[in-house]
Amino acid sequence: MTPATAAQRLHPPGGRCLERRVTRFGTIDIIERGADGARLYLQNDQVQSFAQPGGNSLVAYVQAMRSVLLQSRIQRVAVLGAAGGTLGTMLTRDGAEPILVDINPEAFELARQYFWLAPAAACVVADARRFLDDGTELFDAIVLDAFGGGDMPPHLATIDFFSLARRRLLPQGLLLVNAPVERRQRSSVPSLSRDLAASGFAVTIFEGPPWLCRNSLIVGGYVPEVALALGDEPAETRRELMSLRRRPGTPPHGA
C-alpha cells in the first residue's frame, strides 16, 4: 500500500516480530511496537499497514481517505489493496459497507489475526483489474491502494484502468488513488493526475511537503469542501494529515 514511509518504523524501540511469512508475493513481517501494542504490516520491508490496537490506522493518507469518504457520504466502497485492512475496518465502524480486494489470500488471514479486521468487512481474493472486469455492481467510491515491488502495479496505473474504474462508479462516484513520493522526491502525482483526467475525471489533489509526506492523495470526481483532520484520528498522524493541502489537478479531458 505504501512504499517505506519512515525507516524508523521498521524496527521500533521495544518492538517484536509477531510473525514472518514468506508468500508468493513477498516476505511479510508483522511487528508490534512495545510502547503501545501498535502493529506494522511490512511486505519486503515496506510499510503496508500501521494500526493502533483495535485497527485505527496510524498512516496519515489512510486517515485522509477516510475523511474524504465520510464527508462525501460514501456508503458502498471497493478498496483495491487491503493488507491489514485498516481503512475497511474504520469505514465499517463508521457505518459504510466496504468490500476489500487483495490478490494475496494471506493478507486477509493476517488482517484478521493481527489487525482487528472488522468481521462485517467483505473480503475478495482477486487482482484489482479482474475484480472490476468481472463484476457489475456500481460503487459510491473505489479506492486504489495496491502496491507490489515498491510501486503501483503498472497495469493499474493506466488510462484504460481508470476508465474501467469510472464505469464501475455511480454518476457522482469517487476514485481515490494513493500516489507515493519516492525518497528522491520523485512524485507519481503528475502522471496519475494526467491519466485520471484523460479518463474523464475532474481531479483534486491533496499533498504536503515531501520531507514530511511520503504519500499524496488524488481524487477523481467531485469532492465537497472537507476537513481532513476530524479530531478522532491518532495524534501522531495529525501533523502530516494537517500538512496536506488541496489543489485542483489536470482538467478533465474535453473540459
Listing every helix as H and every strand as E from the N terminus to the C terminus, the arrangement reads EEEEHEHEHEHEHEHEEHE
By DSSP, the count of extended strands is 12
CATH architecture: 3-Layer(aba) Sandwich
**Count of distinct structural domains:** 1
**Shape from CA axes?**
globular
Separation, N- and C-terminal Cα atoms: 32 Å
Largest sheet entry? 8 strands, mixed
> What do the pLDDT scores average to?
90
Helical content (DSSP H or I, runs of 4+): 25-40%
Radius of gyration: 17 Å
Total count of helical runs of at least 4 residues = 7
CATH homologous superfamily identity: Vaccinia Virus protein VP39
The parts where pLDDT drops under 50 for at least 5 residues are: 1-7
Describe this structure in words.
The protein is α/β, with parallel strands linked by helices and 255 residues long. The protein has a single domain (54-248), classed as Vaccinia Virus protein VP39 (Rossmann fold), CATH 3.40.50.150. Helices cover 25% and strands 29% of the residues. The chain has 7 helices and 12 strands. Helix 1 (60-71) runs parallel beside helix 2 (86-93) and helix 1 (60-71) crosses helix 7. The two termini are 32 Å apart.
